[in-house]
Design a protein that fits this description.
10 helices; 3 domains; 48% helix; two-stranded antiparallel ribbon
């Protein structure tokens, strides 16, 4: 894994194929596309590799197939053995939330423990024998928890959670997996987490609100003080502009322009003719002046 958890990989792959990759990480989506082409569409390994190569050519700037061929081939080779995730959500119980509140020192610790809980429950769904373990890198857990801090402080927070008996650590020296000790499988869910991009925000939104889901990508983001944000920072530039309809001053045809545009009065076709006439007039005046 490359630090990203997609609960429903089937829907994710469909959306990629239909809408494109936008700013998504190829190291995350190529393995998912490989599994989708092989398992759902039943493509051969060769056709799968060709489809991914075509997808990357269209969606990845400065794509060089020579640099990516080894990774693509590796993903295609593994694609039949790795099961596609088809999880709608991971549920969190009130008991789990109460334990997080009572056992953590501050909001930062709570966001990290909540994220670890969600990741552990995700792996539990993927494997019945997982037994509440996580196997992501610490930096990826903190990224999902929306906690930006140094590696030294990350280690300190993990150690403090361990001392509070909230988590357990593998006895093997070279195994950095973490076991979450506050998992509750006996009571009903009060939270359904379907997006793992901003787990820290998910926790804070449950705690006190003040967040919104981007109308374009669906990621949970902090709301501003006016409560009027609908797009995240990544998507705000891609949001559709409001438009208005005006009539061309020459041909009278109606056409749409940006609602803030107060200068355009020619349709594109008439504007070309208008500019050509203006240039002719400009050159005529220049020639008259030169001959004088």
């Amino acid at each position: 894994m490359f630090g990203i958890i997609i609960l429903n990989e089937i829907e994710y792959a469909k959306d990629l194929i239909e809408s494109g990759a936008k700013d998504k990480d190829p190291y995350s989506y190529i393995p998912i596309l490989s599994k989708y082409y092989r398992q759902i569409l039943k493509y051969t390994p060769k056709k799968t590799a060709n489809e991914i190569d075509s997808f990357m050519t269209t969606n990845y700037i400065n794509y060089n197939s020579v640099r990516w061929v080894a990774f693509i081939d590796s993903c295609v080779k593994k694609s039949k053995k790795q099961k596609l995730s088809n999880i709608q959500f991971v549920g969190v119980t009130q008991k789990e939330l109460d334990i997080i509140d009572s056992s953590t020192q501050n909001t930062t610790h709570a966001k990290v423990l909540f994220s670890l809980l969600c990741v552990a429950k995700y792996f539990n769904v993927r494997s019945e024998t997982n037994n509440n373990w996580t196997n992501l890198k610490t930096k990826d857990i903190f990224r999902m928890a929306n906690v930006n801090t140094s590696i030294e402080k990350q280690d300190r927070i993990i150690h403090e959670l361990y001392k509070s008996s909230s988590i357990g650590i593998s006895k093997k020296v070279d195994n950095l997996n973490i076991r979450v000790l506050c998992v509750d499988n006996t009571t009903d869910f009060v939270l359904q987490i379907g997006d793992f991009r901003n787990l820290g925000y998910e926790y804070m939104n449950w705690k006190k609100g003040g967040y919104f889901r981007c109308a374009e990508c669906g990621a949970l983001q902090k709301q501003n003080k006016y409560g009027n944000r609908i797009y995240c920072n990544k998507c705000v530039g891609n949001s559709p502009m409001l438009s208005k309809t005006i009539k061309c001053v020459d041909c009278g045809r109606e056409f749409k322009i940006d609602s803030k545009d107060n200068q355009t009065d020619h349709c594109p076709e008439c504007y070309k003719k208008y500019r050509a006439e203006k240039n002719k007039e400009k050159y005529r005046k220049y020639n008259v002046k030169r001959r004088a």
